[in-house]
Amino acid sequence: MSYYVRRMCREDVDQVTEIDREVFPTMWPPANYDHELRISLAHYIIACVDGKAAERIEEQKIVGFAGLWMMADEAHITNIAVRHSYQRQGIGEHLLIATINLAMEQNAHILTLEVRASNTAAQKLYHKYGFTQIDIRRSYYTDNREDALVMTIGDIAGALFQRQLRRLTKSHARKWGITGYHIV
Predict the structure, then answer these.
(1) CATH class for the region spanning 3-176
(2) What is the rounded distance in angstroms from the CA atom of residue 156 to the CA atom of residue 136?
(3) Residues ≥6 apart with Cβ < 8 Å to 171
(4) Cβ atoms within 10 Å, residue 126
(5) Fewer beta carbons within 10 angstroms: which end of the chain, N or C?
(6) Taking Cα atoms as reference points, which of 102, 108, 109, 124 lies closest to residue 182?
(7) Which of 115, 7, 4 has the alpha carbon at shortest distance from 67?
(8) pTM value surpassing 0.85
(9) Residue 53 has pLDDT above 60, yes or no
């Protein structure tokens, strides 16, 4: 499957909300993405199936999305979600790489996120990219009172992290046949 990552626009809100409800069905109501797009601190990207026939944005099939909030030199990943039928195809990892790159473009030095204590697959991916757990938010999720693990990377601009990111990006590209990680 071929896909690409681009910035989210207003025409994408319905599909992104649909993915949000599919992947996070028991959470609080989905974010008002139309509103989020108007906030200068918020940055959203989407992964689209590369359908050459879909010339209009409204016709493009969105398979995943990621959100990032910038506060001073800290970037906070608000969500990464991939449609169930497209999971385990490298798209979530691609969105993570693109989100890290976006954070660096915004001059972030620190990157944080929360993840459910039970979401061991996501935790494994985040550990792979250098995130470490720094805290636990007890009963964070309102649907079942599950704890959230707070994870961070302390210096995404540092040489050590940059070497690791290049190595992991190259490995991901080889495995999934991706030719570029730029956001279109």
Answers:
(1) alpha beta
(2) 22
(3) none
(4) 23
(5) C
(6) 102
(7) 7
(8) yes
(9) no
